[in-house]
Specification:
alpha/beta; Rossmann fold; 2 domains; six-stranded parallel sheet; 14 strands; 25% strand; globular
């Protein structure tokens, strides 16, 4: 077959002319492949936290209804692109076929990989949902997916279970970005610190801020606070509702003698935490919104409304070396790895 667009626009059915991520519908008929596509036998979908939380709520927590919602989305859109949150997730699978134009890649049929691009842009066909793991946002399926020429992936490591690697790689962009922006001596606040991405960010924040820095984690649940304390990291763990912006402000003011945070990382999977993140941060500081539940309208207009001059960064699921950085955390911190294996894998 001929070459498709490296970015996958040849698979867009509606509307024409857009890239696969914002597209409404993708072509998920894999009976004929383009020469620059990779076909994957999918084993596990790792639905992103904001999306899975929304699906569980809509389904009333019932596994059969969760399955129905996912099947309906993929049947209608040709991809797992949540129409409410706009987000997707990632997958694990085995390489089934490699297009002739991509034979020079260090990849072989049968290799097990994790895709590092969103399910919201990945053509997907589901034959059957085998199991729903509500507590870790994972769905076992029989199905196929495509990786475009521009798509990034990582071969699964040999020194950790595949579900652990998937859970870590699903949020790999967050700790890698944290590693880039935290400086020695920084005061860092991680909202959602007890969650899957938050724990990895806490590790990197403690590592990069060093002994002269201060790291504060916030979780709404007592379980999240317990996970932060069990991580073995030198941090301050707070329990509270980050939707209560003034509570966040008071707590961070008290812990920093009014100086506030140099950097606030928002890792939650619920809306209305934008202003708490901004209020926790000093003028000229940085607020990093990794959460897919973020309203950037609320963040931009909220900062304007309270007269806060902060730099706001949009969470990017990809940054150079992000897979290696995230997996290295599991090797550097045995207590965090044990906690991850128990909680997410």
């Amino acid at each position: 077959m001929s070459l498709g667009c490296p970015y996958g626009t040849h698979r867009v059915l509606k509307p024409l002319g857009v890239l696969p991520q914002p597209a409404e519908t993708l072509n998920n008929d894999f009976s004929a492949l383009y020469d620059n596509e990779i076909l994957i036998d999918v084993e596990v979908l790792n639905i992103d936290s904001a999306s899975f939380t929304q699906i569980k709520t809509e389904a009333g927590g019932l596994p059969e209804k969760i399955a129905q919602i996912i099947l309906k989305t993929v049947a209608e859109r040709g991809k797992q692109h949540n129409p409410v949150t706009g987000s997707g997730g990632m997958l694990i699978g085995k390489i089934k076929a490699i297009g002739s134009a991509l034979q020079n890649r260090p990849l072989n049929v049968g290799d097990r990989i994790a895709t590092l691009v969103s399910l919201s842009l990945t053509p997907l066909h589901i034959e059957e949902i085998l199991a729903i793991h509500k507590d870790v946002d994972q769905v076992e399926i029989r199905g196929e997916a495509l990786l475009f020429e521009s798509g990034i992936y990582v071969k699964l490591p040999d020194d950790m279970p595949q579900k652990l690697a998937l859970a870590v790689l699903d949020v790999a962009g967050a700790p890698a970005q944290t590693a880039k922006i935290v400086k020695p001596g920084d005061t860092v606040v991680v909202i959602g610190g007890g969650g899957k991405s938050g724990l990895l960010c806490l590790h990197e924040a403690c590592k990069r801020a060093g002994v002269t820095g201060k790291v504060i984690g916030i979780s709404q649940s007592s379980a999240g606070v317990k996970r932060m304390k069990e991580s073995g990291l030198p941090l301050i763990a707070l329990q509270g509702d980050a939707c209560d912006s003034l509570w966040v402000l008071r707590e961070i003011e008290g812990l920093t003698e009014g100086k506030l945070a140099d950097l606030t990382l928002n890792m939650v999977n619920i809306p209305r935490t934008e202003l708490g993140s901004i209020l926790a941060t000093r003028d000229k500081g940085i607020v990093y919104f990794f959460s897919m539940a973020t309203s950037f309208t609320a963040a931009a207009l909220g900062a304007e409304g309270i007269g806060k001059d902060v730099t706001m960064l949009v969470g990017n699921g990809y940054t150079e070396g992000h897979a290696e950085i995230a997996l290295a955390i599991m090797r550097e911190n045995p207590r965090l790895r044990e906690l991850y294996e128990r909680t997410y894998a």
